[in-house]
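User: what does the whole thing look like in 3D?
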Amino acid sequence: MEFGNIINGFLVTLTPINIFYCFIGVFVGTLIGVLPGIGVSATLAMLIPITYGIPTASAIIMLAGICYGAQYGGSTTSILVNIPGEATSVVTCLDGYQMAKQGRAGKALGISAIGSFIAGTFGVFLLVLIALPLSEFALRFGPPEYFSLMIFGLTMLSYLGSGSFLKAMAMVMVGLTLGTVGADIVSGVVRFTFGIPELYDGIGFVPVLMGLFGVAELLVNVEQIFKRDVIKTKIKDLFPNKEEMKNSAMPIARGSVLGFFLGTIPGPTGIISTFVSYSLEKRISRHPEKFGKGAIEGVAGPESANNAAVQGHFVTLLTLGLPGSAMMALLLGAFMIHGVIPGPLLVKNHPDVFWGIIASMYLGNIMLLILNFPLIGLWVKLLEVPYGMLFPLIFLFIFVGSYSNALSLMEVNITLFFGLLGYLMRKTEFEPAPMVLALVLGPMIEEAFRQSLIANYGDLMIFFKRPISAAFIIISILLISSTFILSRKRKKILEISLEK
Amino acid sequence: MEKSDFFSGFTLLIFGVTIFIGSMSYPFGEIDNPGAGFVPRIASLILIIISLLIMIIAYKKSFASEGSTVYRTFFSTRDGPKRMILALAFLLAYRLSFPILGFVLTNFLFFLFVTRSLGDFRWRISFTFSFLSTSMAYLLFQVLLKIQVPPGIFKIQ
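Assistant: Here's the predicted 3D structure for the full assembly of 657 residues, as structure tokens:
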């Protein structure tokens, strides 16, 4: 069954136009992965308006290529400059940079590309296995289940975030509130538009995201004069030798499995998977003392984990319609702009899109492996481009992307406003991801909530009466309570240690 | 949490209260048929509670560690405030001049002054870079992607 579907997927992907968009996606993905200071979310936000005139499958194939391509590129910067190109490549700095300093930059880049390829391909394989049964299971979901699932997603994202849980929850509420701007779906009442006609359809998430991720990132980066000390070494011997491959095989396998399954959980699980993989490899290694001093396992494991995690993220988005991260929220937005709703009905209603995306991931991973070896020299050169030149170029893309979204300067104003807000949020340690996810999911949460109550005569217990819904809600409540219990415990320990 | 959290919490509190008051003008509905004001009112109420909690925790912490608070600097470098304000001014100038001067001229001037002042390049390099980038932007956005942008008062299109 899946085999036939995959063949159909390849028939969609292997058309000249989709091969072209897949290539553009993975190329741009690697490019932004290499360049520190430009994130995947900002790039997706910038490029979504450009995809308006492109067929849905091609657009999503390209945008998905950016998501997993960036994971490949992120390691290059970590290894050569000791600055992570992407947040998911932070751990790679530890051993990758040490390897480069020892004249083994080529091998570090090589094992990173090989690990990424194996993990990416393995992740797609698991995605194929899981996607269909999960979609069928999700067909049983009604509004109460969807409401609880989305609440669970938002709670998980806030719970696993790097900052304060309270701050993350505050951002969720701000996002939900912003999501109510515009005409009410049920009654048609226009809310919080202040007479601005551009807001009648709600606050467009594209300008908001461009501001929160693009402009804010620019403002944070422009504060410092970037000095990138790219390791001046001839990059040779990209292919690891037999012993290095042997040492890397199990870390790649473990990283792939770990990354994929952690990736299916909403939240910054891509980053978490790299840290878990690194700790795991160090713990089970016969030579833990080598970690941090150029151990190839310290590159192979985390780099495999972050690639497999992206495929894991796709599981919940494609089958349940639940984006687990800001990056996936953007993809959800891109789907919706093209009139396609991801979720259990995606396979049935748009099999070309669903299987086309999956097949494109196989193709994209092969492209990335081929691209990464000959183009490493180009990426190194790119790292030497001063930020003073990148800054105006990135802003130009953000501005044009935002303006062309509706050919309106109001969209640009929204982008600039949220850019400044995003800058202040970063400075005060408020994460933008929960707010973005709540903004994108907000209208759906409201609809599901109201439908559930209307259909069940105002019975709030409906969310607990249905087992799947109850499970999501109970887990969410447990997560929220555990945060407060843990913080109280931490406070007590601190008080005791202060008294001592 | 630190002192800036108190102000962040306060800002959120004002936002929450504003939304709560604003939501009063929309029908709340009944529990079996929630109206347009239902979700904004509940969300803003939760936001008010959370922002108060953030403020209380920040206040307690700053009070408890009076005299021993380690202040984090807001800007990451000494030049940070100057560079950030300059960058923000450039972005606003771009936005304001875009409908007046048009896409091409705005880009050229933006590239020129940003690379000169934030990138510390010489005028010659800034000029060359601006000329090349503006040409590329024109080709990409106007010729290739056919995005309609304002021609400005000089009608350069």
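In plain terms: The radius of gyration of chain A is 22 Å. The mean pLDDT of chain A is 86.
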